[in-house]
Amino acid sequence: MTLRLPTLMLGNFRRLAVPSFCRQINTLSGQDFPVKEMTLEVESVLVTGAAEGLGLEFVRQLARLPTPPQYIFAADINQRNLEIVKRVDFNPDRTEIVPLKLDVTIRRDREEVRKAVEELVGDMGLSLLVNTAGMAHIHQLRDLFGVFMEEHFRINCVGPVMLVMEMFPVLYQAAEYKSGVLPYMSASKAAVLHISPWSPFINDDDPMLFYEEEIAYRTSKVALHMAMRCLALNLTNLGVLALQMNPGNVKTTVGQYQIPSLRLQNPLEVSHSVSDMLKTLAQCGKSHQGAFLERNGDFIPF
Ligand SMILES: NC(=O)c1ccc[n+]([C@@H]2O[C@H](COP(=O)([O-])OP(=O)(O)OC[C@H]3O[C@@H](n4cnc5c(N)ncnc54)[C@H](OP(=O)(O)O)[C@@H]3O)[C@@H](O)[C@H]2O)c1
Prior knowledge:
- InterPro entries: Fungal_SecMetab_SDRs, NAD(P)-bd_dom_sf, SDR_fam.
- The longest helix has 32 residues, at 146-177.
- This protein has 10 helices and 7 strands.
- The termini are far apart.
- The chain has helices at residues 7-12, 21-25, 53-63, 81-86, 107-121, 146-177, 215-236, 253-258, 260-263, 270-283, and strands at 44-48, 71-76, 96-101, 128-131, 191-195, 241-246, 292-294.
- The chain binds NADP nicotinamide-adenine-dinucleotide phosphate.
- Residues 48-49, 51-55, 77-78, 102-105, 132-136, 155, 159, 195-197, 247, 249-250, 252-255, 262 line the site of NADP nicotinamide-adenine-dinucleotide phosphate.
């Protein structure tokens, strides 16, 4: 069965927005879930950018959870799909890895992915959406063209936001499905996670923190921060958690070859970064709604 969001609910998004939102997300106090350590238990997860880097590692580690998801939708722009399945160690009796083609910037792809997910998950909905799809290319300011900035915006911000919009109904379905067993917001119920780099505050006065070659990458990710905070307000009313996390400086194509500021630091293994993020994600609840977190759970001010 496919559940569509009631029109009334969509119309009421703004009016129902939680006014104390900004105060809530900057404190760990007042958590709305039990204090004991939580483990992540999701029925289904969609990972974008799943053929390599952080995305592939999310697929690997999710498949090895003590209670693994029934469905892992591994979406890749280049259809390196069979390759993904071969590179992941999973128990076929407990988990099905479903390779999907997804360019986050293409509307038709997003729609096809939503339909494929709906068809398999049915009433359970989609528990977790992990967006790792992203691009980072550098350009000296003198070579910067609008088209280059636009490409970063489309891949790092517009596509991921539109994907969340497309998946609203299935995420809401998951929140409803588990509302009896998990009355509070939780990543084990229904959640969206975006991966974003740490960046200096915009008004920071240390020029060393700003790398002119990264202007397109950084501005597109800051736009994603704002977009996700706005979306998070609305997702609260649907019981869907929305977070962003900084993975650290990780040994991936983006981390090691494309971003000059990351090359200066000691890189982390992908497995280390993803394992930290999954542990943190499992502990997140309503007080983390719309937040930007370090992989260890510390709040990052915007
Ligand atoms: N690694 C780090 O240190 C670090 C630090 C902070 C934040 N991040 C963020 O973490 C995310 C994952 O990066 P990563 O380090 O794992 O790099 P990665 O290995 O290059 O993974 C990014 C993936 O996204 C895919 N992709 C690019 N454009 C896409 C599109 N339009 N639709 C769908 N998929 C697309 C890429 O495919 P192609 O290979 O075909 O382009 C690639 O598979 C990125 O958003 C990045 O900004 C990484």
